[in-house]
Amino acid sequence: MTHYLLQFNYTSAAWAALTRQPTDRGAAIQALCEANGGRLVGAYYSFAEYDGVVLLEAPTHAAASTIAVTALAQGHIQRYTMAPLLTMPEALEVMRVAGQMSYSAPA
To answer: pLDDT band at 106, cuts 50/70/90?
Structure first.
């Protein structure tokens, strides 16, 4: 399965709801991942450029996208990014292959 990095920012309404009633969102994220054949690897708040980070595994890009779109459709996330992640062996293979290829840059 492919690993994915999701970064998100909550809306101010979501933060207001969480401060009124603090809730561990990990269980909800885990259930959403499992419903799509995936697995939650970890969920973290960062209080930086993004409010939080989710690492998950999903069997396909479509499954990972379904997880993200389902969460986004609730309206409590105002910004997010999602990126598939390469394992170290996958990245090394990409580097090996790229090192054997040629490409002409635009003039």
So the answer is: very high
Q: Is residue 11 part of a domain?
A: yes
Q: Is residue 105 part of a domain?
A: no
Domain hosting 42: range is 2-96
Torsion, Cα of 65, 39, 16, 49 (10° steps): -70
Residue 42: both structure tokens together: 């970890």
The pTM score is 0.87
What six digits make up the tokens of 81? 């990014």
CA dist 66 to 5, 14, 70, 71, 80, Å? 14, 21, 6, 9, 14
| pLDDT given for residue 104 in this prediction | 92
Identify any residues that bridge with 5 across adjacent strands, giving them in sequence order: 55, 83
Burial of residue 68, with CB atoms counted within 10 A of its CB: 0-12 exposed, 13-18 middle, 19 or more buried: buried
Q: In a 3-state reduction of DSSP, which class is residue 3?
A: strand
Average pLDDT, the chain: 96
